[in-house]
Structures are given as C-alpha cells and as structure tokens.
Amino acid sequence: MYSAFVIFIFYIKARTWPDNKGETLVTEHFWYNLLNGGELHPRTGQLFDWKHFNASRTGGILLWTLIDLSFAAWQVQLHGTVTSTMVGAVLFRAIVVADYFWYEHWFFETLNGSHERFSFYSIYGFAVMMPLLWTLQTQYLAQHPVELSWPMIAAAYVVFALGFILNHNVNGQKALSRGKAGNVTIWGKPARAPTSLPGSHSGFRHGCAPLLAGRGQV
C-alpha cells in the first residue's frame, strides 16, 4: 500500500509540479515513465529528500537487522539454538547497515543516489524488494539450521572482512576525490576519473564517475 500510494503521488507530481523541470524525465511512454521516469530528488522543503527517505528510512536498509534478528529468534523457537551461520549472517549485515548510516552522505554519490529516478524501481525496490531479498539467508537458516566447521567459519569471516574493507576503502577514496574535485593524491599519484556528469540544479552533483586510481581501479 505504501509503495503504490507513493508511486502514484510522485508519478502525478513529476507531470504537474516537479521541483526541478530540468532534472525531471517525462517521456511519451507510459510504462517507462512509471518504472524509471520522474524526478531525481523530489523534496518537501529544503531538507526532506523523498528518495533518501525511502531508501534508508522505510522498509529498506533500516529494517535489515531487525528482520535478521527476528529470524534468529525464530530459529531459537524452532530448534532451541542459534547456529554459527546465523550469527555470522546477522553480524555481517549489521556491520554493513552501521557503515551505511555512519557514512550516509555517500548515498548521494552512488548510481542509485545520482541517477535513478524516484519512480517504481526506486520506491518499490528499496521499500519492498530489498528487505525481502537481502534477508533470505537468515530466513532460510531459521528453517534449515546449518553448522560449519571452525576453519570454514574463520574463512567466511576473513573473506567478509577483506571484501568489506576493500569496498569501504574504495568508497572513501572516491568520496575524497570528489570532495576535492580530484585534487588529491592516491597511492602516490594524482587521482584520475572520467569527466563527471553535470551538477544538479537542486544542489546535488550527479556525477558518480568511477575512480581510475587507487583501489577504484579494482
């Protein structure tokens, strides 16, 4: 109901009173407009960004850990214990969620934040599909408990740690480069990136060009 209501309201809004006509995409194709057209950053006032709110304050990222913990509790109810795999799945995603909210401003520099219109894909995707799909692991483990050997558990933690550190470091380097308009040194060399896309009339820069220096090359 929430998604259907928001999709309908902002479908109409993009055609009647968009916040910024220069950033609003309206075509002659109904289904394209419904699925991936409309405004980039519709707002209420100067501070309330609807796309940001929908991505991080509705059913999306905000609820991941709560849903995971609920499935962990269900596993205890069904089997009388919490498996090591359940602990790992809940912990890994909780770290990702905490990192997102600590560096929340990076959202506006992602492909989603920079280029995806506030329409069906963005609204339904964040509010419904993400909390459903991203918690399938803990839902499965709640009903089908799996225990791994200690070497396998250790390997899973190491792989997660390496992947998380690499991803976080890449995002940090990209944010640093954008914040200083590329005038930074990464790994002893000047930062390099393709020409960024134009800035937003509403104050956001929509360029999210990949970094061609440091770990961004990976």
From TrEMBL:
The answer to whether keyword Iron-sulfur applies is: no
Cellular component terms, GO, for this chain's entry? endoplasmic reticulum membrane
This one is known as 7-dehydrocholesterol reductase
Q: Which UniProt keywords apply?
A: Cholesterol biosynthesis, Cholesterol metabolism, Lipid biosynthesis, Lipid metabolism, Membrane, NADP, Oxidoreductase, Steroid biosynthesis, Steroid metabolism, Sterol biosynthesis, Sterol metabolism, Transmembrane, Transmembrane helix
Query: Could you state a single Gene Ontology molecular function term?
Result: 7-dehydrocholesterol reductase activity
Q: Where are the bilayer-spanning segments? A: 86-106, 118-136, 148-170
List localization entries.
Membrane
- Give an example GO biological process: cholesterol biosynthetic process
Root EC class: oxidoreductase
| Lineage of producing organism | Eukaryota, Fungi, Dikarya, Ascomycota, Pezizomycotina
